[in-house]
Design goal:
mainly alpha; 13 helices
Length: 301
Amino acid sequence: MKKNDKAYLGYGAILIWATVGAVIRYLSEVIGPFTSGFYMYTLGGLLTILFNHKNGTKMISIVKLPVPAIICGSLYAVYVILNNYSVAISQTRAISISVGVVKALWPLFTLILSVPVLKENKKLSILGLLFSFAGVIVVVMNGSGGQESGPQFFQFYNLLPFLMGFLSAICWAFYSNLIRKHNLDGSFVGYFMIVAGLIMGLLSLFVTEPSNWSFEVVFQIIYRTVLTIFVATHLWNRSITEGDIYKVSIAANYSPLIGVVVTSIMLGVKLQPVVLVGAVLLILGNIFNVRINKEKIIPAN
């Protein structure tokens, strides 16, 4: 173990990231998913660019970015939109929590896609695969947490949040592998945060959304753009450079369960035992697949 181990900073980052789902859901309910997305990601993108510039990072104009960076940035923008909207369109808060479990498939997809994208010789644990997909099936079959069940739940609109969460996990997995393949530093991400925000802002002009602005709404937007993007990322980076990365990586495996518990508390939703079971199964699947390849988990935020 390192002297003055800073692994605890990584634990703090994981806890902060666990609150993101609740913040997105709350803002979607009071000012709409597209309006909230516009403010969160345009501000987040601008702050990211300013932060990189202040730190001396060489910034390339978006029109001069290499093709791999444009592809990765586009995947990031699609991920942001899918991640935001999958939570927003869930008919109930209980469903939005279940969708968060589905999105936690990204470590598995990152591992699977590393084989064709990075040409790496990775192993897949059959037991890990079974646990991961069993966890997702359990959560989806639980539907709306008991508020709506039976055949009527398995209609396209009801399943759409889960599908979007599933696709967001795939987008993040592609992004993670491609950014490694092309050795990109990620400094361009701020541009594509702004792109995602502007797209959502444009969409907000064509749909009717609530407009219940308050001090709390402003606080939540600031919290999302500053604390979860900058502070948590800074804590995480320090933890993996100055702390015991093994301990931090193990803790990150439990992020699906932590996210479910934290989100349910913040949204005031009674946590369904089936959702907990699904999250635990997904954690077991992640652990089996990570340990067989000795991989380190980096949260998708």
